[in-house]
Structures are given as structure tokens and as C-alpha cells.
Amino acid sequence: MEIARLDSLSNFRPYRYNHLDMQIKDLGEFGVIEQLCAMVVEQRSGPDNGAGLGFRLEVDAGDDTAAWKTGTGTELITTDTMVEGVHFTRATTPWRDLGWKAMASNISDIASMGGLPLYAVVTLGLPPETEFDDLKELYGGMLEINNEYGVAIIGGDMVRSPVVFITVGLTGVHSGELMLRSTATEGDLLGVTGFMGGSGGGLKLMLDEGNDAGEAAQYLKECHRRPWPAVGQGQQLARAGVKTAMDVSDGLADDVGKMMRASGLSARVFVEKLPVHPALKEMFPRDWVDLALHGGEDYQILFAAAPETMDRVLTLLPQPAVVIGEVIMGQPGGVSILDNQGREWASETGGWDHFG
Amino acid sequence: MEIARLDSLSNFRPYRYNHLDMQIKDLGEFGVIEQLCAMVVEQRSGPDNGAGLGFRLEVDAGDDTAAWKTGTGTELITTDTMVEGVHFTRATTPWRDLGWKAMASNISDIASMGGLPLYAVVTLGLPPETEFDDLKELYGGMLEINNEYGVAIIGGDMVRSPVVFITVGLTGVHSGELMLRSTATEGDLLGVTGFMGGSGGGLKLMLDEGNDAGEAAQYLKECHRRPWPAVGQGQQLARAGVKTAMDVSDGLADDVGKMMRASGLSARVFVEKLPVHPALKEMFPRDWVDLALHGGEDYQILFAAAPETMDRVLTLLPQPAVVIGEVIMGQPGGVSILDNQGREWASETGGWDHFG
Fold first, then answer.
1. Nearest Cα to B77, choosing from A320, A272, A77?
2. Does B350 touch chain A (CB under 8 A)?
């Protein structure tokens, strides 16, 4: 969820939304989202419809998913969209991979809360000239990843549109404490599951053409085409007592910045600690740090915990996770990068602005 | 949900989805949806992720909403999309009305199951040149209707797109028995809440220009601009023991056909029983029957019940509902229209084919 990516309600400052006479590209994606979120929360009379039936809103707009408590547990919902020419092109993303990835980005949101993904509704916007066989490939890709993760498509909508878009809404369930992005505290260490930058590297290989044969290239392209959201890791983290997490989807540095912004703190990331696959270093001997920090679409989990918790947690996880930084006092959302020569610089917000 | 509009699983015939070499416009919306639904259900390994936590899928793709049981009740989810140039134009649907209607069509899906709408996630596809003030109007319209119905927006996504689209995902809850579209039986009477054709009449006035002043015209345009989904009526119907219902969104005759198709039966609709507001007859003395049967976007509830149940139910409803037809043996999905001169004709499927 993008509304979710930005802000936790805990540090919402209500904006005045007077007449602005601006286009959204001038205001920027995050400006637009902040103002609309504030408007929704201020002017909303609910959420109280479900109170009599035991429903209570637990996480509002501002995290990877929204969540509510019921009599029996916590339920989650998230939604994510991919638009042709904006999030993908047919050249780099075949239909089957598009299906996989559209579902993966949502599963990853559920994973980052520590939840188990459950039911999906799929909306497709399609030009009438779409080949039916392509559509079957798209569904084939969704079914492949869904069967890996136990997710079931249970409904949706299909509409005519001049441009292909795919919106997935995904529910999930959680039997313990949710991990939020707003709860990091000073002195926490930052950890990530899996490798960083592989997806960005794979995309770069495809865009640059040539130079993409061989095992290392294949591995990186596979990272881009078929990301595996860290559902098991997320559940394990939550069970082990980690309170703070989000998914790494827009690039590690950018997502660290979002977590710090939501938590009202800064962070320092250590280049030498970045978990990078040898294939990325092999194919991008000069750019691998940049790809690991800003590549995007890794669909791993970024989490924060006190050092003693972190020590314990890292040994519990079924697959490796590593410490990559620390939470410090400072400008909310500030991220600095420290390399192994001791140089430190502020991370530019490599943030993807949809309207910029 | 459109996947929902078509078929209940009870009469799914698995299709062979071999290589077809067809574009979706050739196959038609319903052909595409049928084949994809069959593929999803056949190839899906789930839904079983939630079983350990007490979740059980109750209504699959093929009705107005999907639904699952939890330990404490039944939960619903639906999704509906509007695309500029396909479902609306800025000429006939100002931004505020677009917000209202995008939410109304989803609330109506929950209403037709007998449920209470709860939480919404909103996805917007927007060109970068979109005026921020227009976006506030859009959210203003969503908030207006949400506050009327107790719905809360709790998340969403916002993406760049060359064409405006808005996708709403909406959850709901139900404490009793769901009303389905597949459970009509021979001898049932068909009832509808509210008036038919007002929205279609209002749209026609706006498209034809001129001739749209005066009280009757205002009323009809209001029907088109601000439909009021029948949530209270739906809950009352379910509580009174009605088992079969769906929302009237694509035109009454078309929706009767869908209910009959899902139930494997035919129906006869009586022109003289059609609930039509005097304003529609005043503005469209020649076309009101056609508008009432095929107008679309009424967002009322069509329901079926045995005569004795129907008798009892009609007196219980807080707002009027009337009998408009009967369920008979025949070709599944067949609908005939009987006028007050005793002439009977087969209803053309005035069905909106997105890709046709």
C-alpha cells in the first residue's frame, strides 16, 4: 500500500487543505498522499460499523497494511497496483512474471507485518485487443506464486482500459503482535532478510541489453522476474518479539528513510554490512553498492530491534538475515551511509515519485 | 465484483483452456471471465492458509462478494473499478460524484449479500497533470457517502496512469445467512427495492443536453449522480429469511438474467409491476420501460423468495419493495418480459460487455 508506505498516523500533522491550484506532479506523490490521508482521518466519522460485532481498527493508513482486530485474531488488508509503462514494460516483464510480481508485492506487505497471506481479489484493466493467451499467462503466474504461498484468488473485476493495469487486494491474518514501521527506538539495530539489489541488477541487465548471458546474469534476472516474499521470515521475526518492520520494495536506503520518518528518528547504514550476492558484485563491480541501496523490488524485510533481541533473533531465522545499520537520534527520516573507508554521506531520497 | 457477476461455482463447467489465439474482445467479457474463473479454481491449491486459525472460504468468485467464515462471523470482500472514458466521463460525472459512485457500487455489492460495509482500500490511477483540488473533491465524495454508511477508508495505493481509474476494495461483515444469486427456485417471486431506471434516465438527460431543467430532471440526475445503496434493506431481507439476492447495477433485465443463469432457471418480468418514479415517466413517456429494464446503475437489490416468504417480507421492509416477476423453468438465464397488453418477448441481453 502506498498510502501506507509513507506515514504512520503517530506523526501525522494535520494539513490545511485549502484551495491550492496545483497539479499533483507539483505537489509530489508524498505531498498528495499526506494531505489526502489527513483529510480522510479528519473528516471520517467511522470506523465504528463493526464495533457491535467485535471489530476494532488496529492499524490505519500509514503502514504496509491496514489491520483490525476481531474476536478471534487480527486481520490485514493491503493493495498494490502495477501500470504498464509506469511499473513495467512488456519487454522486461512477460505476462507470467507480471502475474507473479503483482501478487508478490502484496504478499510482501503482509509478510512485513508478520502475517500470513490469505485471500486475493484481482482487478484487471485491459485493452480489448489483449490476447487471451497472454491473460492466461498472467493468471498462470499469479496461480504459481499463490500456490507456493497458499493464497487463493476469490474474486475481482475486469474492465476495459486503454492501458494495462493490475490491482491486487490481499487479506491476511496474524495471531500475535503486528510489526509496525513506526516503533523503532534509538539504539535499535537494523536488520534485513535476504540479499539486496538483485532485482535492480537484473532489471539493469535487461534494459542495457547484451551482457546478460551466464549464470550470474541469470540469477539476477530471476531475482527481478520472480521475487520470493519473506513470509516465513516475517512470521518468525514477529514470534521472536521484533516489533518494528516493513518490506524493502522501493530500495533499501529509501525504505530505511521511511521507517525512520514514521519512527521520528534517523539511521546509519553500513556499506560493508550490506548483504549482496556474489553474482551482483560480479556483474556490477562498480555499481553494486548503488544497486543494493537503491535498486528496489527486493521484497525482503527490513526490521529494527534492540541489540540483545537482534542477537537472539538472527540465530532463530530459517534463512540468513544480517545487521546493516543502527537507529540514531536526528532529523526524522534522515539516513546516512557509512562506507568502509570511514566516509559518511547523506542518502539522497532515491524515492520513486509517481507524479514527479 | 465482475467475476462475481457471472457465475456461481455450482454451475461451473470446467473449460478447456487450450491455445485459443483470440483477443479478449472476440471472446467477450463473460467468456473471458468464465474461462479464467475455471482456471483459477482448478489450478488453485488453496484456500487453506487460514484453516488453522478458523478461516473457511464460504463464497468463492461468482457472486456479488466473496465471503469467508471466521470464528466470530462471516466476512465479505468485493472490488469494483471505474475507468475514465469507459465507466464515466468528466462531463457527466464531476469528481465529487465519481468518489460517491465508486464507493456506492461496492457498498451495493455488500448490501446485496445482506452485509454491513466496513473497511475500504482505495487505488487511484492518475495522470501527473491531475489538479490536486479535483482529487480533494474525489475524496470529498467518498467521505460523504462513507460517513452516511459508516465505512472507513483505511489504506490504498496511488499510481501514475495515462487514464484516470479508481478501484475500491471493500470489506463487510454479516452475522447471519448470506444471500446468494444461485439459490432461486422455481415458483419464487422476484422483488426489487426502490425505483428502477432513474439513474439511466438522468444519464440520458445529461448526454442529450437541453431539456434537463425542472424538478423531474433534477430528481433523475440526482439518481445518476448520487445512488443510495440499499444496505438497510439488504440486512432486513436477510434477517427475514430471504436466501437469494444480488444488486441491480447493470440494468434490471440483465441482472435478472444473471441471477437466473446462476440458479439454472428462467424468469418472467411484468412491465406493469415495474417500480418507476413519476419523474421518469414524465421525462421519458416513450422510453421509461426501456430505461427501467436496461438503464443500469440503480444500485438497488433484486431478490427472490417463495410467495409466502415474499408476502411477509414486503411488509417488514423500512422502505417499499415490490414484486416484479416470477421464476420459471426454462433455459438457464432466460428472461422474458410480459407487458400489460399480454405481449411477451425475450429480453435481449442488454449486458454491458467491456470488451465487445
1. A77
2. no
Q: What is the DSSP letter of A187?
A: T
pLDDT at A2 over 80: no
**Could you tell me the strand order of the sheet in which B189-193 lies?**
B244-248, B300-305, B189-193, B321-328, B266-270, B335-338, B344-346
Q: Which of B2, B17, B153 sits opposite A44 (nearest CB)?
A: B153
Asked if residues B1 and B78 have their Cβ atoms less than 8 Å apart, the reply is yes
Taking CB atoms and an 8 Å cutoff, what residues of chain A touch B61?
A: 153-156
Q: What is the mean pLDDT of chain B?
A: 88
**Measured distance between the N- and C-terminal CA atoms of chain A, rounded to whole angstroms:** 19
Q: Is the pLDDT of residue A72 over 90?
A: no
Report the C-alpha gap between A27 and B128 in whole angstroms. 10
Q: Are A234 and A301 spatial neighbours (Cβ–Cβ below 8 Å)?
A: yes
Chain B residues in contact with A55 by the CB 8 A cut-off are 118, 173
More confident residue, A205 or B8: A205
Domain B189-346: homologous superfamily in CATH: PurM-like C-terminal domain (3.90.650.10)
Question: What is the CATH topology of the domain spanning B54-174?
Answer: 60s Ribosomal Protein L30; Chain: A; (3.30.1330)
Return the exposure string of A164-193: e unless at least 16 CB atoms fall within 10 Å of the residue's CB, then b.
Answer: bbbbbbbbbbbeeebbbbbbbeeebbbbbb
Residue B140: helix, strand or coil by DSSP?
helix
What is the 3-state secondary structure of B15-70? Answer: CCCCCCCCEHHHHCHHHHHHHHHHHHHHHCCCCCCCHHHCCEEEECCCCCCEEEEC
Looking up cell 475486469 gives: A158
Q: Is the dihedral of CA B13, A166, A5, B107 positive or negative?
A: negative
Mean pLDDT on A162-190: 95
Q: Which residue of A has its CA nearest to B42?
A: A143
State whether B121 and A77 contact (CB < 8 Å). yes
pTM for the full model? 0.90
Q: What is the ipTM of this complex?
A: 0.88
What's the pLDDT tens digit per position in B110-134? Answer: 999 999 999 999 999 999 999 999 9
C-alpha cell at B156: 490504498
Q: Does B9 touch chain A (CB under 8 A)?
A: no
Model pLDDT for residues A17-31, shown as the tens digit of each residue: 445 578 888 888 778
The full set of domain ranges for chain A reads 1-45, 48-174, 189-346
